[in-house]
Amino acid sequence: MTALLALSLLAAACSSDKKTTTSSSSSGQGNSSGGGALATTAGFDGTTIKLGVITPQTGPVKLIGDPLTNGNRVWFDYVNKELGGIAGKYKVELEVVDSAYDATKGVQQYNAIKGDVVMFAQILGTPVVNAVLSQLKRDGLAGQPATLDSLWVREPNLVPIGTPYQIQAINSMSWYLGEPGNKDKKVCTAIQDDPYGKAGQSGIDFAAKEMGFTVATTAKFGATDTSFTAQVSQLKTAGCEVIFLVATPTTTGGLLGAAAAGGYAPQWIGQSPTFIGILTKSPLVDYLEKNYVVASEGVTWGDESVPGMKDLVARQKKYAADQAPDYYFVFGYNEARAVTQVLEKAVALGDLSHDGILKAITSLDKLTFDGLTGDYGYGPVTDRNPPRVNTIFKVDRNAPGGLAVLKAGIESDAAKKFTFAG
Amino acid sequence: MTTATPAQEGAGGIGSRTGIPTSSNRRRRLGRSSRNRAMVVRYQDDLRIFPSLPARVGLAALALFWAFGSQGLSSFWLNALTYAAIAAIAAIGLNLLTGYTGQVSLGHAFFLAVGAYATAHFGAEVGWSIFLWLPVAGVIGGVVGAIIGPFALRLRGNYLVIVTLGMLFLGEHIFKNWTDVTGGGNGISVAGALPTLDTSKFDFLGQRWDRNQGWFWLSWALVAVAALLAKNIVRTRPGRAMQAIRDRDLAAEVIGVSLTRYKIAAFAVSSAFAAVAGALYGSFQGFVQPSDFGLVLSIQYVAMIVIGGVGTIFGGILGAVVVGTLPFVIQELSSNYDLPLVSGDKGGLNGYIEIASLNKMLYGLLIVLFLIFEPHGLAAVWFRVKAWFRTWPFSY
Amino acid sequence: MTQFLQLLFGGLALGAKYSLIVLGFVVIYKATGVINFAQGGLLLLGAYLAYNASQTWGLPFALAVLVAMAGGALVGLVVEFLILRRMVGQPTFAVIMITIGLLYVIEEVATSIWGAGNLNLGDPWGLQSVDAGGVVIQVKDLWTIGLAAAVLLAFFALFRYSRVGVAMRATALDPEAALAQGISARRIFALSWAIAGAVAALAGVTAASGSAQLQPTLSILALAAFPAMILGGLDSPGGAVIGGLLIGVAQTMAAGYQVNVLDRLPWLGDGFDTVLPYVVMVLILLVRPYGLFGSKEVRRV
Asked: Measured between beta carbons, which residues in chain A are less than 8 angstroms from residue B354?
């Protein structure tokens, strides 16, 4: 036996340092140490809470991942430095890993760190969350999806925030077709060929049924496509006058660029992740200002009348001075707030284990964001009720973040009727 | 066929005749033709699997480490080494085709996909046990290989590379659209295929293990099985026929080796190895999607056999460990040290080269450097070191 | 009809892009008998050099393109001198693998220098287009077609009439015999890599200008050009252009009519337009591996 011990010691010496200890107790049940102190558990050593972040740090979607993760950081910096941590005493630490917006890489990274974290504070991208979800369920962990698919609403292992994509789509159609002269416009969709694209499409399909219009054609493209001739030709030939777009910023630039080059100028309505501020620095900006709006939520960056926004800008200046005004930053900031509310609840219930987190999620009443986004009703998973209000933004190269509110507070009847499968 | 042929084992390397007879390979390269191996006097010796005492001792030490020493490894490294083991099985398969038979394929990833999806279906969906789905995945891979082989292997050299590349793209298209089985572009969960292997849930007389320990044991045991199987193929009659084809297909044909038969057989066997690896890859990771099995993966396998050693079983494993663990080593290094010019994972750009970029760059660089300076890979280096010690004090 | 013409023109423009890439493949294959997988990397590098010259150094665009071509040629020369020269006489497999390794290195070096985001090449064509009876024709596409034609003519003249071109053909045909005639195979190899580098840079510029974007994934375009290369024949410049145009038109048509076709033939699957070129390629390889215009391979015993 001693020989074996020597061998394993040798091996331990060659292996990485810190991870050995945490992983050996990674199964989730902590050893209770009495008194008021919380039991240590996977990702929690008694003083520091470790949270996982699976986000694209490389590849085109990095444009979204970077500001979003910055939003996470700024909020937690604020919690750590000004509030003393979660419940005033437990500091938060982020373990950030790169998914490159690829489902498989996301799963690999998830597998690599799942034993070291209390929960995931960010899992970015519908395809990635879709892939990680079955593992989350099997392992009994919780995660915050940085994607607005309505599929997440009824998932006990996820902590979604914000108005779902489907509602975004429904609300923007109700807004557009309700504007004078737009009633009989020909509606089309252009979607990314993956779960993210399907989310927007299903919203439009619902709206079509409720409001009585038909979708003339649907153009599809891959997340990394660079040539869009075929799609533009398809949309143009079908005579599309308003096109609902589900894409990421890089493909938005490519597709709308191809349309602009082809002299084709319908009304584009983009799902919230289609836009990024730097698009206003491209030669496409004239076309965007004229032909493209973004369906999103919340308020213009820097709108001091909203208390949440005032704090956000102040903290951004304090903890991430380099960060340009950016709506993904706001989202990341909000998801960190949501996760904080979950953690506070779990601490109050006295259990930071993976099971404890899941219990805390169902015991929450609602998640609130000081007006940055709508309140999200929580409780048992069947009772969750997401906000159903959207804002339409127009591109404005002079506005901070490149967007200005065109119409706020859209909450259509059709959107209210939408039910979330579960 | 004389007894000289099997002695090509060791650093024999890929024949210089794999390609079409164009200007560039008409001249044979001189120099470095030494076998880096002790002279074999008796035919029986050549057939032995583990020729020398040191080899046996080394293997015993590895087996001991596998059984006991590995329990001291962290979750992170068990995870990395499991991926490496799975890669090793596929690399052994590719080496049979490319290293021993001289047929270059960029379509290896396609057969991994076949195995992974077979497991997603029979293992996760239908609910068979691993004793069923693993062999079935291998058989399906072998059959698909035997069906495609006759078409692909009519071509040689450049053209074979291109047609296997085409196969890769066609395969990806099929996997994207065959939604019932593959889940389409969204991918599919394979987590249900082997749910019981989470060793952190085991408790044996108070002994506890890491969650990846079971996978480490399973995958490396299968590497041993695969290596033995491959070794038995190459040291017997079919293996000699394959190597004859590699070294000079015309000459092999003249002395009565059926080119078609052995090429297709090699293709099918190599595909079966890949499919088994794919099955393990899917069930270990718990999720696969069509884009996992693209050109990048195929190139990684070719890189493994080039770096490890073309035409040796041992080299394939060595290459798989190096290439397979490289990303993990880099990740570990960059999270503990500030590598020059490399952006760390601490967020924001504090360097220039992203870690994912660095991985790919190193694959490329290693391929180029090995092919220029050590075309027979790490295995040849190893054999040279061994020869140096064996002949000491007369080494030079 | 308008849609048909629109797609036809779009296909020709795409085909011209493919042709430029394939011409780079052909020049190296003719001289060395190897398919250069690194062509995509040279293309990428050329496009980024053009970006640097026009946007960072502020050169006029035409001059920037010339600078990029010169830079591409130089990179080709360096790669040949440092790496490929050592591989002369090595198995085809090894040389192909070297070019694949190089592709990775070049791609990632480019990503590290210029980043993964989109860049604007600063070309004068931008989003300009002309309307020809309902068919919208991008100015940039016209230029691409013109440039491909010009390069083809230059190749034709080079191989047919110039001493160097004849020497290249001789080396490709029989290096020993060419050597005996006093032709330096080394110089020929170097020259073919330089030409390939310059043509790749030009192809990169046409691929990244106009409404397209400059980003590291651009190098995938070279893989997409393989079918055109196989169709036309590995060693025929004329075949390269015809193969490129055929594949370009077929792909664009398939994409444009995808919806109609899928109504009737749903088993083709979404996005079959992207694999159509590879289907054509595999079929060609099985029936006529040397392509439409390539020379038949002869096996000597």
From this structure: 57-58
| pLDDT tens-digit readout, C160-202 | 888 888 888 888 777 778 888 888 888 888 999 999 999 999 9
Stretches in chain A below the pLDDT threshold 70: 1-36, 422
- Which chains have at least 3 CB atom pairs separated by less than 8 Å from chain C? A, B
Question: Which of chain A's residues have a Cβ under 8 Å away from the Cβ of B357?
Answer: 58
Compute the distance between CA of residue C44 and CA of residue C41 in angstroms, rounded to an integer.
5
- Enter the tokens of residue C186: 């080394």
CA distance A298 to A306: 10
pLDDT digits over A163-184, tens only?
A: 999 999 999 999 999 998 888 8
Closest CA–CA distance from residue B292 to any residue of chain A (Å): 7
Pairing of strands A366-367, A242-246: unpaired
Task: Give me the percent of chain B exceeding a pLDDT of 70.
Answer: 81
Closest CA to A194 of A263, A129, A286, A119: A129
Nearest in space to B123 (alpha carbons), one of B133, B112, B138, B131: B133
Question: C46: which 2 tokens?
Answer: 């050329």
b/e map of B16-42 (b: 16 or more CB within 10 Å)? bbbbbbbbbbeeeeeeeeeebbeebee
**Residue carrying structure tokens 């890949």:** B274
pTM of the shown model? 0.84
Q: Is A341 helix (H, G, I), strand (E, B) or coil?
A: helix
A27 Cβ partners below 8 Å, 6+ apart?
Answer: A42, B200, B201, B211
Find the CB nearest C278 among B19, B169, B360.
Answer: B169
State the complex-level ipTM: 0.88
| Chain A touched by C286 (CB under 8 Å) | no
**Is the Cβ–Cβ distance between A417 and A210 less than 8 Å?**
yes
* Cβ <8 Å between B347 and A69: yes
Determine contact: A363 vs chain C, CB below 8 A: no
What average pLDDT score do residues C280-293 get? 82
Q: Which residue, B213, B219, B188, B186, is CA-closest to B198? A: B213
Compute the distance between CA of residue B122 and CA of residue A331 in angstroms, rounded to an integer. Answer: 41
B392, pLDDT greater than 90: no
- Using the structure block, give the residue that is written with the tokens 């919203």: A203
Token pair of A260 as six digits: 């602009």
